[in-house]
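About this split. The held-out portion is used to measure sequence recovery: a designer receives only the structure tokens and must propose an amino acid at every position. Recovery is the fraction of positions where the proposal matches the reference. Here is one held-out target exactly as it appears in the evaluation file.
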């Protein structure tokens, strides 16, 4: 059974930075691809970024050049460094692991963390 636990959310002013962490257990992490999604109130869950088992990365256009996804295989942890935050980045952020294939649709992921709230004030 895969377990994912996010941390690092909080309240930050526009232009500020936060780093989210997601600790994974129950899976060979070094061979795993992982992703971050977010969900704002009243909106659908949306893709933010993913990282492949080999370290390749892909980002949503809305966060490209501001957010960086990385993973530490020794710590079984994936990170999301968020810089130049905007009020529209306010959401609950989730890490996720795919059942088989990596992609940008939430339906491709069957392992989810509980989420961590990020609030960006203007």
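Reference sequence for scoring:
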């Amino acid at each position: 059974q895969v377990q994912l636990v996010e941390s690092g959310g909080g309240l930050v002013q526009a232009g500020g930075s936060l780093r989210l962490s997601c600790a994974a257990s129950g899976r060979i992490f070094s061979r795993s691809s992982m992703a971050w999604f977010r969900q704002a109130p009243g909106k659908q869950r949306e893709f933010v970024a993913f990282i492949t088992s080999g370290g390749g990365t892909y980002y949503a256009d809305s966060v490209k050049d501001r957010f960086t996804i990385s993973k530490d295989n020794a710590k079984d942890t994936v990170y999301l460094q968020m810089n130049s935050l905007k009020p529209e980045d306010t959401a609950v952020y989730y890490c996720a692991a795919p059942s088989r294939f990596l992609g940008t649709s939430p339906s491709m992921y069957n392992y989810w963390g509980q989420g961590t709230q990020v609030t960006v004030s203007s």
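Annotator remark: The radius of gyration is 13 Å.
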